[in-house]
Amino acid sequence: MSGGSQREYKQKIRSTVALGKVFRAQELIASSRIAAARTKQAAALPYADAITQAVSALVVHNPGIDHPLIRPKPGRYRAAVLVLAADRGMAGSYSGGIIRETEGLLKRLGENTAPEDIDLYVAGRRAVGYYTYRNRELAGSWVYGSDHPRDEDFVHVANTILEAYHRPNSEGGVSEVYVVYTRFINLVSQEPRVTRMLPLEIVNNELPGVGPNGAATWSEYPLYEFEPSEKLVLDALLPRYVAARIRSFMLESAASEVASRQRAMHTAVDNSRNMVNKYTRLANAARQNDITAEITEIVSGADALGS
User: Fold this and answer.
1) Confidence of residue 4 (pLDDT cuts 50, 70, 90)
2) Structure pTM?
């Protein structure tokens, strides 16, 4: 190998070391945010579960109630899909998993309705860019700090979805709302998931009072008394239910994104160190070859002069 190879390897070493510093900084930032993101997500979950349980109990004990919160709206079928992805990259397969899950959902919904009857609402620059590049019309889009969403972000998204659900189907309203988000299982495991948020699904393994086969065990649901009427209570619960569930989904997605980024950056740091070690060995080998070649030339020159 020539001296040029040494210079090439040394340049690669400098570039890889610089990238490793960036990866390490991103890993430290993500690590510092994990605890706060988990705390917010855990704090939002009990209220979302409680309000879902209250509505579920009303439906279970009063199966004849007809309300948009628990029954599909009449008229032409239309669906809304809310996608919660990331604003930034460097989070491994986080956004890619969300997009794949969304594409699968859109394909399943498309089997029963026309594509124009599916409204796509996208939060997160990565997913917005993906669908914009593919000329997919978006009913709504948000670009915000996806790894640390604010209260105004929750309110804006919830109000937009609620307004579309309240609007008659003939005027562009929707009769079902699905949310694609990432469930936080633990620091090393996050799972893209699809949930039908509206109308409320009673058969749901995540709801309290669910049997081992996934069917609701009616006796385990608390029995509430509603005044002045079930309809007025549901009218009041609907916006609170939507806001609570979307807030919970967004906070869980934020915690998942931060954990995914921390794990991806940790892997990137390890890979950069391995590459530096590899290029160092190659540079040393190139240097040794250059030294050997120079010694050979000197010896050959001395032999030629001696002869």
Assistant:
1) low
2) 0.81
